[in-house]
Please model this.
Amino acid sequence: MSKFFHWLFHPYTEGYSSIILVRIFAGLVFLGEGILKFLFASMGVKRFALLGFPFPQQHADFIGGLEIIGGICLILGLFTNFFALLFAIEMVVAFLSTKITMYLGTSPLPLPPVPPQVGFWAVVHEARTDYSQFLAMIFLMIVGPGKASLDAYFFGPKKQ
Model:
């Protein structure tokens, strides 16, 4: 268990500086989605209520806050493995709670405005952000935040 916590808060930081591009891409998406949960009820509390989450207001506020803080931390490369793990789990939950019912045509959420609206191709189209974000998080957990990160500054090998 101690190895897991060490990995979680002391990631490998010797990777390429260009990893910052993946962190910026993913961090901006999470940051924007977190802000949207507070600005529009249809993206926050209403969405969680329609999906049947208990305490939808608290879930929306928690997830929105997590996405804002975690998105900023990903951009900065701070606690990268911790937030990448949380966001990978979030993407699995998001996919399972929204795409299965879309596939079956029983989604409580509004359907996409144009075809395909249900079935396999609708899921393929609507899940593109989910699996892109999921794979970006897996990538960051494998290669670390890179040299151009606050993790490298605080937790990387010390230069003598």
